[in-house]
Amino acid sequence: xxxxxxxxxxxxxxxxxxxxxxxxxxxxxxxxxSLNGIVSVLAIMTAAYGISVVLHLMVVEVVLRDEEPKQLVxxxxxxxxxxxxxxxxxxxxxxxxxxxxxxxMLAGYIVGCGEILRNITGIPLWAGEIGTYALxxxxxxxxxxxxxxxxxxxxxxIAIVLLVLSIGTLRQPLNHMPAFAGNVKTALALxxxxxxxxxxxxxxxxxAEGLSWNKRLVPWAVVLGIGxxxxxxxxxxxMAMLVSKPVTEIAIIGWGGAIGKWALVLGTIxxxxxxxxxxWSVSYALSVVIVERxxxxxxxxxxxxxxxxxxxxxxxxxxxLALLRYAGGAMAILMAILIPAALMISRRRSxxxxxxxxxxxxxxxxxxxxxxxxxxxxxxGSLLAIE
Length: 387
Prior knowledge:
It is built from 16 helices and no strands. It is mainly α and about 375 residues long. It has a single domain, classed as Hydantoin permease. It is globular.
């Protein structure tokens, strides 16, 4: 049982974290934010970031309480589910749910990138999907260091695109944004989307693996990685709202219409990079989950983790994928419940007397209840229909 390990720098590990959460969902934030006042938007962004950081740091503590970083499936199997037949069955059930959910997400990213390539080059959709798979899965084939480097340059590329778009935005007449607007429904919808944008849970064990040379850096990588996502959300959210007339459900349409067609090209590049970075992080996480659960080699696990996603995409199973995407919301709630529970038990049963990282009060039962409740609210918000 081997994985393609590699040593990451702090920034590469942070980009690995950011890469999972930076997906195309960010482009839906401005529309939802425009339904709320600026004070509400800032408060919701702050709350979503804070809650997300706390849950992700819980994962850090649980992961670092073992000598070797483990994936969440194995952590749950160790701390939450006993060695009885039903405990083992539950572990396999969690594994199956993760595989199905990740296949769904990854196939969606291939379809999204394939459509972008088709629109830019005029090639058939299937060719764009195969090209996307070659680029996306090809990087993952070479392991953690290749992913860390690719994530770093992609995140830098995204930052450059947003800088150029911001400069173009500030040269335009700016809209007035009210301080207070919206209602509970619009606030919850924005909150649910932000929590989705900040969700990078399955990249934490990979960051811990890459930073095994200095485990004390892992919490900082998590805070920095989600912080990068927060910065991107703030830039996209406020820049699009400042000039779009109106703010469109896919931000770049109204944003680009306000500052020029060239912005649509940059927006397309942003979305492509956002999707491809998420594919790298998610598919590597799935590959390592398979390695640990089934004991296969990394390359075989990589093939099993990625090839079915191409098949689903090329087969055109769009309706099937759309239905399965609801599994993502259910998975978020499941993780929000299981992670605090695993933290509580690991504090009692961990073999490390002096853990590398301890959250102290922020990992207490009271905080765990708050975190679980916050993720249930996020799930409710993500299901709300906003007209």
